[in-house]
Amino acid sequence: xxxxxxxxxxxxxxxxxxxxxxxxxxxxxxxxxxxxxxxxxxxxxxxxxxxxxxxxxxxxxxxxxxxxxxxxxxxxxxxxxxxxxxxxxxxxxxxxxxxxxxxxxxxxxxxxxxxxxxxxxxxxxxxxxxxxxxxxxxxxxxxxxxxxxxxxxxxxxxxxxxxxxxxxxxxxxxxxxxxxxxxxxxxxx
Length: 189
Fold this sequence. Notes:
By secondary structure, the protein is an alpha+beta fold. It has a domain at 2-127. The chain is 40% helix and 26% strand. It is built from 5 helices and 11 strands. It has helices spanning 2-13, 58-68, 72-93, 149-157, 167-188, and strands at 15-18, 22-29, 32-34, 39-41, 44-50, 95-98, 102-106, 112-116, 126-127, 139-142, 145-148. The protein has a 3-stranded antiparallel β-sheet. The longest helix is centred in the middle third of the chain and has 22 residues, at 72-93.
């Protein structure tokens, strides 16, 4: 009975504190876009166990009193008995299975490992191909500026003026000045 209630509370509140054993919680990894592989992955949930021994919240005991239709002192006592039984089961069998959550396995006196149950993905990986339609304006990022596709087409279709290289004029002037300096030096000496 208490297993079912613990599983129900975990499903509703996404965490469950088991005194003297550890803490179960659900972590959510958001959806991600992989531009290199051109895919979108769906959000993923993962059940995590920590050896952190935290007492349950009052909200958990309120849940038990409501579900079992008993007062809070009895709910605390019953849950304490349940966690004591879990510890005994871990010491005897070395593992406890929570349906829909996973299996706790005792490694040493202080180390408990958790193996979550395999969950299927609700949504498959999606292909993410970029679609650009002709003659429809869309935003284009150019450096740090955002421009429209029409502005970029106009800028790219303008005839480009080719600058003629003028470095040789400066080189010629410097060469003439150098030659005149050498001639002047020989004339004076």
